[in-house]
Amino acid sequence: MEDLVTPIGRATNDPRSGNRTTVVLLHAFPVDARVWRRQATALGEDFDVITPDFRGFGANAGGAPVGPFTLADLAADVKRLVDELNVGRVVLAGLSMGGYVAAAFAAVYPKMLKGLVLVDSKTEPDSPEAKAGRAEMIALAKEKGASAVADKMIPKMFAPGASAALVAELRAMIEACPVSTITTALAAMRDRPDRTAAVAESGVPVLVVVGQHDATISPAAARAMAGKIPGAKVVEVDGAGHLSPMEEPEKVTSAIRKFASALK
Ligand code: MLT
Known about the structure:
This protein has helices spanning 37-43, 71-85, 97-108, 128-144, 146-153, 164-175, 179-190, 196-202, 219-226, 244-247, 249-261, and strands at residues 22-26, 48-50, 90-95, 113-119, 206-211, 233-237. It is an alpha/beta fold and 264 residues long. Strands 2-1-3-4-5-6 form a six-stranded parallel β-sheet, sandwiched between helices. Helix 3 links the parallel strand 3 and strand 4. The chain starts with 21 loop residues before the first strand and ends with a helix. It binds D-malate. D-malate binds at residues 28-29, 96-97, 189, 216.
């Protein structure tokens, strides 16, 4: 079995205390738990927060190349982690690929969730064009490595005018991601099924957060998706692109805090 995700970002309080709601923050592709570092600290004031790295990413990137996995496998890793922590029902938030995994989790383990937050993410599968793009990106990663992937992705990740410091932070995370993890995750994202109906039928309260300038999943697309999920709320993050937790951290923290605080 692959290593369980490592809760490197376990925040200010011990989530085993059982007194507070636990919020689990799942990272995007091809980055790692550090993408949530601003929220981990801020949300840690009110919740127990864990920010795991998926297998092959971040603190789990060392050692042998990661074997093939599906996004459902990553959801099962998260389930094992939550079981181990013994914290009861959690609020699960996923950024982009992390949201695809969170939706897979909600489809199979809805009773483990107080709420689901999809940030710059969606429940729908890849379009045929997106699937073709995955093949190109896999070839690029194999041929030219993670820095070529960073070159290709970074222009689409932030709103226009993102600071050089933010871009450098993102580049460092992408370049730290092993090529084997990049190619495996691309195939897993390409092959993910549509989780919209499963999430809609799960009965889990859903919050959709989307960057105003998200070039990957537009606010219009996010609203259309939310419209298929009974009761789903949408928060549009002014001034943010695809990685809104990095670009507009307080706004994303505030949206998650408000949603999670109201959950039973
Ligand atoms: C991500 O940010 O996780 C990726 O852009 C998701 C994707 O490629 O579909």
